Fold:
Amino acid sequence: DGGITQSPKYLFRKEGQNVTLSCEQNLNHDAMYWYRQDPGQGLRLIYYSQIVNDFQKGDIAEGYSVSREKKESFPLTVTSAQKNPTAFYLCASTHAGTGNYGYTFGSGTRLTVV
Amino acid sequence: SQQGEEDPQALSIQEGENATMNCSYKTSINNLQWYRQNSGRGLVHLILIRSNEREKHSGRLRVTLDTSKKSSSLLITASRAADTASYFCATDMNRGSTLGRLYFGRGTQLTVWP
Structure:
């Protein structure tokens, strides 16, 4: 079955450490997104990508980095510059085009700073 | 900045009752979408309504859109305990570009008691 897979489900980061969250989809979607969700908050966009080797900053890109070397994969690195990384991270994908498609979300990665 | 805002923040009802959630937004949209999120999980796309549509149905879901008031409502009829979840509206302000990005509200937490 087609879908979008995020790993790991839980991740612990030490102070000053970079960590990478994985997002893989086999839906043949062109566009991929990373969102951050904090308790009681909506989803905030970190980065998004429409095509391979191209991506744009979202609303809260500082302290994060991404790559899009393959259509299927859009990993997110949380760098040591991100001062408050504890959150629930969600990856999503959709068809590119006129925007009349819903997003498919992964099951999320919960990142905790220890 | 947040584009969509849901109301109420929390809603508690008995099984069999109808649940109505509202969403208001600020600027012109291409479409508006509703998503559901079970605790600790990813979001699931429920329904998309385009700016030139006024009402859509999907099973027990009914969505309305009033672009003059910049508002939408999600009605869940004959609710079940399994409908307990957070519900988010998301607006696509894509203005003709080939990539739509969604703006999410903070969500309505729906609890359905058996």
Notes: Chain A touches chain B at residues 6, 31, 33, 35, 40-43, 45, 48, 50, 58-59, 88, 90, 92, 94, 96-108, 110 (CB under 8 Å). Chain A is about 0% helix and 45% strand.
